[in-house]
Fold these 2 entries.
Entry 1:
Amino acid sequence: MTDIPQNLEKDGAYTGDTGFSPKRDSDVEFKKVEKQCLEFYPKGELTKLRKRRWYWEIETKDIINVADFCFNKLGCRFSIASGTDTPRGFTILYHFSLDRIGLIINIRVTLPHDNPEVDSLTSLGRGFEWIEREMLELLGIKFKGLDDTRHLLLPEDSPPDYHPLRRPHG
Amino acid sequence: MAELEPRVIPIGPFHPLQEEAEYFKLTVEGEKVIHLDIQLGYMHRGHGKICEGKTYDQIPFVVERICGICSTSHPFACVQAIEDAANIEIPPRAAYIRSIVGELERIHSHLLWLGLAGHFLGYNTVWMWAWKYREPVLEMCEVITGNRNHYAMFKPGGVRRDIEEGMIPPLLQVLDKLDKKLWMLTKAVLDDPVLHARLEGVGILTKEKAIEYSTEGPTGRASGVAIDVRKDDPHAAYDWIEWEEIVLTEGDVFAKAKVRLLECLESTKIIRQCLEKLKGLPEGDIDAKMTDPPDDEGVGRYEAPRGEVFHYVKGNGSMYPERYKIRAPSYMNIKSNEVAVLGGSVADAAITLAAVDPCYCCTERIAAFDTKGKLLHTWDDLVRLSREKTAKMGGGS
Amino acid sequence: MNLSAGWIIFYLLVFPGFLFTTVVGLVYVWVDRKVTARVQFRVGPPFLQPFFDFFKLLGKDTFVPEGAPRSIFFGAPILGLASVSILSTVLLVSNFFPSQAFGGDLIVVLYLFAFIPIILIMGASASSNPISALGGSREMTLYLAYELPLLFALATIIVKSGGQLKIGDLLNWQWANRPFLYSVSGAFAFVSAFLCIQAKMGFVPFDIAEAETEIMGGIVIEHSGPVLGVLKLTKAMLYFVVSIFLTIFFWGGFRMPVKGEWWHIFGWLKPIAILVLMVLIKNTNPRLRVDQALRFFWSIVLALSVIGFILAAVARSAQTPILWL
């Protein structure tokens, strides 16, 4: 019969033997991560809206550095990105999940309406590709460095300037 | 033998392998797969956009319809996102009930996958047996929620129905019987030599690739990536009870099957503990009333049977959200097939593609179409279009 | 062997040829579906369902894919049907009327057996579809895999019976001595022949060439309407033919080992028992990959049949042939 794995080590934070997660109260870890973040990118505005939901406003040009820091240095998992058409411009929230302590770091960049353009993160991993293609077709945000610009969800013959998630403003 | 010419084997958009429409374009040399291109878009309905026109009370019902199998995962993540945005805590009774419904769904979803995996391998007996043992789970769902599926149990702030004291002993009895059958099925599947021969070492997703593609759920856990939102980001009742997170390192299809089967057994453990604890709790509130619509943004996530369901909601103080984003686990997992099927044969590709337990309805749901009620194509047009498209896809040899 | 042309036509078309085999074959399909259903906790179809299915297909349209050579596309299924009819006629005539069989009919049976997969591959390659081409290549691989063990299994019983090449003589030998199945070498031969037949029928674990969930029916993907109906009918007749094939060569035909003519009625249960065994194996295994099937046949099954053959040769070379070996 198969053996059920016991007490898996997981990056030192959790051993799974009690079933009670020590992460829930590991304030030390949270402080450490916060310090790391602020040291790496002091320009950004880090809002701790809830204990496990941080919002980090950064400049558009730095996205690739900050994402690289989160994805590779902190060891975050890329959850998804949500693009929104707001009156101030397009905002993209990159949701990075730090599973070690159950934290979600939402990195926010804001792009102007007239020429929304941001660096593509596909160089970090293939997992970023689909969501960028999706934002490209639904919101019309251009991604510098995204090779595959085919439609993902819309039919392939839908017009290139048709972006269903854009909103009228003003 | 002469050099084999690469050929395209289409899996989809309509194929017996998949219950939903999806297009996998396998490029093969003989039987060996050398490239995979995945095309989405056939099941696209625009749930995110629909949600932006609904009140917070209506949204759980809408997102419940995203998928018939994980019909409680989406509401689960959804109500958590709304609660996160509105900053409310739910009463413990509601937390236990939420966990119970969530775990019941996990069992029936995993059994469903097991059955389908058997079917994909031509092992229809496993299919029928797994689905037979899925029945008591659905019946338990019916007893608890009133429905076999689409439970409509969750609302922002709590749940809609209580589990009364008298219901608990019969439920525990069913659970005991279910446990035995699950063990039997687990053993039968894991000890079958032909299944071993067929699944071991097939469609391996290495840990590096699993991290690069940000896979999650059983797909990631079979590759040694220990991600389980229930453990990592405790919510509902998951950190008040004892259970194990199943992680294996092989990364092949067999490991994925094993993770799912063992998780079913963990789930019965969770349900049993929740029911026992529920018995000890005083009768009380199951709903923390949400008085004001949220003004902030919130993220809710839940470990669906297939991985992390991610919901993001942005409120602006009105009854309607300003932005609603849904991301289902298959969105990240299906992409990882790009590496998992390479080098295998077409026969292996079929089961590998199915091994992430893809749920296409979940995968595509974000924007809405506006056709303004105009008839775009006549019947003849459609026939012509489909012929053209088939020719484009390289259907002929 | 002095048969009038009328009798030959009657044998071929009515009994025991085409018509009889069709009806019994469809009944066997029902047995398959019913047993499968019971194993899987289902109710199963009504008795006449296979007949309905066939007649329904006759009333449907036939699509001919673009670029498919029509002569092969339509001709192959007809040829297949014809060869199965001849096959069942030869086998059953030898069983019921041993005196009317002809010399070397065993060779004819083997030839016709080999002919059926070749016809299927022809039909598949005529459909100009990459998937049916893939199915065709799988069928070809599978055919190469099981053909050699099957020949060895038959060689075993020929050696055992002292070189009989007429089916009637093989049967007579079994009635005079004992069925081949009840001897060691015969049992080895039976097991390997049984597995080969499982593969020939395209039953799980060897339904590789059709593999619904991988290549969507493979070799028959482009066939529809009456053409598909004819293919299905051929398959249904094969259900019956392969069961009597194993019964005749290994289990002493339809005769029962008791005195009295009426007992032989129960002999008809023998092929059904073989069918049920095949169906049970089919329902307790997943599908193998084609390379795994090839390895399986060329190692285990071939070894089994070769062992049987050697044992039979040893038994025969003794001064008085050892019957039980």
Entry 2:
Amino acid sequence: MELIVFIFLAVWLVLSVVGAIIVKNPVHSILFFLSSVLATAGIFLSLGAELIAGLQLIIYAVAIVVFYVLVITTIPWEKIKKFEGIYLGEFLVGLPFIIISVIFIALLINKYDISSIPVKVEITDNVTRVGKTLFTYYLFPFEVASVILLIAMIGAILLGRKEE
Amino acid sequence: MIIDVLIALGKIAVVLLVGLGLGAYLTWVERKVAGHIQARMGPSVVGPFGLFQPIADGVKLVTKESIIPRGADVPVYYLALILALVPSFLIFSVVPFGPSFTVFGREIKPIISDVNIGLLIVFAMGSIAVYGTIFAGWASNSKYAFIGSLRKAAVIVSYEVVLGFAVLGVILIAGSLSTVEIVNSQIEKGIWYIVYQPVAFILYLFCMLAESGRVPFDIQEAEAELVTGYNVEYGGMRFGLFPLAEWYLNVVGLSAIAVVLFFGGWSGPHIFGPLSPYIWFLVKTFALVFFTLWLHWTLPRFQAKDITDIAWKILLPIALLNVVVTAFVVYLFS
């Protein structure tokens, strides 16, 4: 049963990631991306990481992707660059990077057995555990991260402000 | 194993069928309420008290010609329907309709899935519904529809934040995100959380109206300026699905969650025999639904810029203050 669920979610995830890369219409691409985020949330849920699944849905699938969607759907369609056939030159430049990253990933898979199917964790108090660790052991990094986010937010507000 | 799957499927089927039927009959309720508020009769011709009106409406919607506008993005045009309807149904997956009971030695919980993150699911589904609106507006290739969908996106993004912080107060007191646990903790303490969290409840009401696109927050469909906004290019039953999801299923779902959070869920005196928990739950839920309809047909509409102003400048500071005060009180007295 768990294997069926995992295979379903994994195929869904891989298909939507591939789709996000190969479709030409940016709105279709963002829809495939949204679908991949939902599939990831499903995988977290099936592995017992309920809190992360919920946060994936709220923060990733909604709070972040909705801004991509807002920007992409409001682009004036007459002005975007049209597709001009296969980008051969760009592909050749990118080829070494692709080969190197494939080699690295292959090495990782060989060394640390990350290719096996993940196992479900039997924890029921996800929320309590994450909260305790976050506010005791990782308190300083957590606070630093929130200050960085605050600075970024103030910067964005400053940039978006209308001149008076 | 197989029996568990069958029970789960049975629950899903019941919720789906009841949800769709309810959606249809809430149109009748809404038109009756609206009629009486405006000193009219409402539907009264088809059947006794106009009770067959939803069926006639359904037949009309299904048999109507529905056209796809020129220049529309056809796959996204259809996908928007699914994206609008499915999240509204998924809210019901974490609504506990009553206490668990046993049939033939097997414990049955009247909730589709009692997950630990029940409330997170509610927030997530409430906000994922925004994609239905945005893509419906975009795929229709129409300026009116698109303006409506952008307005809705702005409303949802702002009110989702307020909703999260408003509900945090209740979560702090109950100590759980699971809907069943929250109801149980209210029954144990013998008090409804609206007594502890009246501010949170008022904030929740604002957010409920905003998320379900009800007056005074229905700027995305503002009939006078946007000719019903994001769904203007849809016809027939495809058009009917949007109000069904947004106006009816969302309102009922969020009212049920409000009952769980603030009104003690299924708790109430046992005056209806064994069915009383369910009856209490439905009575409380539909009292809130009626309140929403009442507001819808009484109040005027806010301006688009006022709505986001209210959320960020007034409601969010109040919600944050409420969370801080609640946290202090819970820390001191527990």
